[in-house]
Each structure stands twice: as C-alpha cells, then as structure tokens.
Design a protein that fits this description.
The structure is a homodimer of 213-residue chains. Chain A has 213 residues and is mostly helical. Chain A contains nine helices and three strands. The radius of gyration of chain A is 19 Å and the shape is elongated. The C terminus of chain A is likely disordered. Chains A and B meet through helix 3, helix 4 and helix 7 of A and helix 3, helix 4 and helix 7 of B. Chain A binds a DNA duplex (30 and 30 nucleotides) through helix 3.
Chain lengths: 213, 213
DNA sequence: GGACTCTAATTTGCATACAAAAGATCGGTA
DNA sequence: TACCGATCTTTTGTATGCAAATTAGAGTCC
C-alpha cells in the first residue's frame, strides 16, 4: 500500500460512486478506519478531500455523511456539465493529436459493436475512455478537476441500463460526429455536438416522463 | 477560536491571497503549527483542503508549496472565469430579488463615487460585494465553489492599481448595464455584458503590451 | 576540482492517547 | 403517560510520539 490517506480516499470514493455507500449514509471514522486497517488520521484527510469535491457533507462534531442530491441539484449539475463538457470539446478540437484521434475512432467502432451485441459493460468502458481522451486533450487541469466534480453523480446513475437501443445508436452517432469535428479541428462544431450529446444524456436520465418539460 | 483546522485554513488562505506567502513558498507543517499555536494535525487538514482548491501543491513526503501560476495557467484560468461568470450572470438574471437589485444599484453608485475620488480600497470592496451578490443569486453551490477556485488568482493581482481611469469608468459602466439587464430579467443580456466585463478585466491584467495578440 | 556515497538531520505520514462536544439512556416529576 | 433533566456513552477534534522517507552535508575517491 502506498499511502494510507490516498488509499482511504480511493476506497471511499469508489464505494460512494458505485452505490455501496448510498446517499445519506453515515461515514463513521472508526468504522472506516477498522474496515481499512488504518488509523483515523488518514481517514479524516480523505473525508476532507471528499467534502471539498462535494461527495460527502461533514458537520462539525457530527461527522460525515454521503451527500444526497435533490432534484434541483441534479438539474444544476447537468447545466454545469453541459457548459463544461462542451467547452472542453472546443478546447480539445484545436489541441488533439492524431494519435488520440486514432484511438477515439477505434473506441467509436468498439462501442458500435458493443451496442450491437448488447454488452453494457463494454459500452460503458468505451464511453469512459472516449470522453476521457477529450477531457485530457482539453489540457486544462482546472477544467478536469471541475468536470470530475460534476461528472461524479452521473457516474452513479449512468449505467446505460436505461438507454433504449435508439438512445445508444444516437450516442454512437454523436461519437462518430465528434471524431469528424475533431479531425476537422473545428471547435464550434465539436462544442455543438458535445452539447447535444450531454443534453441527450440528461434527457435519458431524466426519464421519458419529463419529455415535455 | 472555534475549530483549529478551520482557523488554519482561513489564515493560510488569506496569507496566500494577500501575497504574504508568495508562489513557490514552502509551507512547513511544524512552522505553520508553531506560528498558529496549534498542532500539526489540523494544519495538515487545512493544507489538504487548499490543495483540492488549487492554492497549494503538495508532493508526497515533500510537503506543501504555494502554487505558482504559469502564463498558460493564467490564460486557462481566465477562459474558465469568462465561461463561469457569464453563466452565473445568466442564471442570476432570472432569479435575482428586488432587494438584491437595490443593493447592487447602491454599490454601483458607491463605486462610481470611489472612482471619482480615487479610493482604490473602496472600489475593490464595492466590486467584490457587487459580484458576490450575482454569484449568490445564481444559486448554485457547485458553481460558487468552481468560481472561487478560478477567482482566487485574479484576487491576488486584481488590486485595481493598474487600472487607468478609463478602465475604471468602463468597469462602472458595465456594472450599470448589468443592473439594467438584471432589472429586465434578461439572461442573454446579462450574460453578454458579464462576458465583456471579464474580458476587459483580463485585458487590463494582461497588460497593454499584449493588446495585439 | 568534481562527482559519488554514506550518514545525520529534518520533515512528512501515521498511530495512539486524551479532551470536548454531541447523542442516548435512564430516572424523576407533573 | 408525557415531558424534562442529569449522567453516561459515543464520536469527533486535537495533541503527541514514533517510523519512514527525503534532503543536506561531510568525507572520499577518481
């Protein structure tokens, strides 16, 4: 084990994101410390980090809880995600390398095949790497930090399980169009496609019932 | 003193922002602990918070240093600031209360007088409260967190000392136009004016020498 | 003279111990 | 029975001590 505090951060963060610790769950320091076999000191540092990143709320003398998101929070988060992801796409368009473009094209094909065969795990993996490349190509550490804060919640829910086949095909089409926009080194195009992409994702997540909002 | 960790955070943050700890300065834990009369434990928690917020960099087993910003960092930060502040203005336009609007108008007048009399301290104070109201009216905790991360650096430099009289008058004019846009509850107008406002600020900070870039 | 190595000193990372605050439990009173 | 208060328990906040890692420096060899 490298650093205990780092380990604690990773473990708790992962547990929150994959739903092992549901929203509202109490995170006792001793409890976590014993579970990880370390002392409370590094646990506290990990919880402070998670607090700043918005994953946990901690009240003085009362301990930490997993943040629970209201409906308004979710809307707010998606608005920010739309803003930041499309901005990242625009920046990436004028900075992305040919190597990264090649990899993105591979991922796009992989994902199309995964959609065809219904392999949800693989879809998620391809999607994650695809978007990861774009964010890195935006080459702004601060932007990446902000995006992480805003992507975390969707991660919890974005299992692709509620995507219909049509939704998935549209998603693949967006990826394809993004690759073209990047090849053309066209920031405005990339930004616009990315906006559509995230808006579509929000609509899927919001559920069909709210289509008319 | 309420909580030692909170106190340490406030003290160190303020010292960084007002320049007492210049970029690159080493922040030893024992040194800070003795200076504040507390132990290293709360100091460490404060440093972790500052790390996530981007104000300090900490390397494993090597301690913390005040972040030093490259020229590219500064550009990157201003791009994000433009994005986020104008977004906040748009949100605020449809949410701001009449009371807040009234206070903003007072501040606008105050600031105009301060510009006339050359009171730089007062200009800065009015400006800070004016923009604070807008950010609060945007009513997005996450957005506020992000803006703080992006406004911190400008805070270090934005002393208004390098503003010419013309720059200051333009700034006041922007504030005046913002009040009108908010009164009209016009998000697009508010967003656009805010974008101009921040772009102008960047140009002042960048220095006249780079006008042709 | 310069580079390398081994050692000593400083500093961070973590664990443990203690103090203080919040929460729970039990008893008493109306 | 319902409500209030005091004590006890649990949990957080902080201090201190120790181990590991990094850095600084002296001495040595080429």
């Amino acid at each position: 084990m490298a650093l205990a505090a780092e380990k604690a951060y990773e473990v708790v963060r992962t547990a929150i994101l994959d739903g092992s610790y549901p929203p509202g769950e109490r995170l006792g320091e001793v409890e976590l410390a014993e579970a990880l076999g370390i002392s409370r000191t590094p646990i506290r540092e990990a919880l402070r980090r998670l607090e700043v990143e918005g994953l946990v709320e901690v009240l003085p003398h009362r301990g930490a809880r997993v943040t629970s998101w209201s409906h308004e929070d979710l809307d707010e988060i998606y608005e920010l995600r739309i803003l930041l992801e499309s901005f990242a796409a625009a920046r990436a368009a004028s900075r992305i390398s040919d190597g990264e473009l090649g990899r993105m094209d591979e991922l796009r094909q992989d994902m199309a095949r995964a959609v065809h065969s219904g392999d949800v795990e693989r879809i998620a993996a391809c999607n994650a790497e695809f978007h990861g490349i774009i964010r890195r190509a935006a080459s702004s550490t601060r932007l990446v930090t902000m995006l992480n804060a805003v992507i975390q919640l969707p991660l919890v829910l974005q299992t692709f399980h509620r995507y219909t086949h049509e939704d998935l095909q549209r998603s693949v089409a967006h990826h394809s169009e993004l690759v073209h926009a990047f090849r053309a080194r066209d920031p405005a195009w990339a930004e616009s496609v990315m906006r559509s992409h995230v808006l579509a994702a929000r609509r899927v997540l919001a559920g069909r019932s709210r289509d008319e909002e």
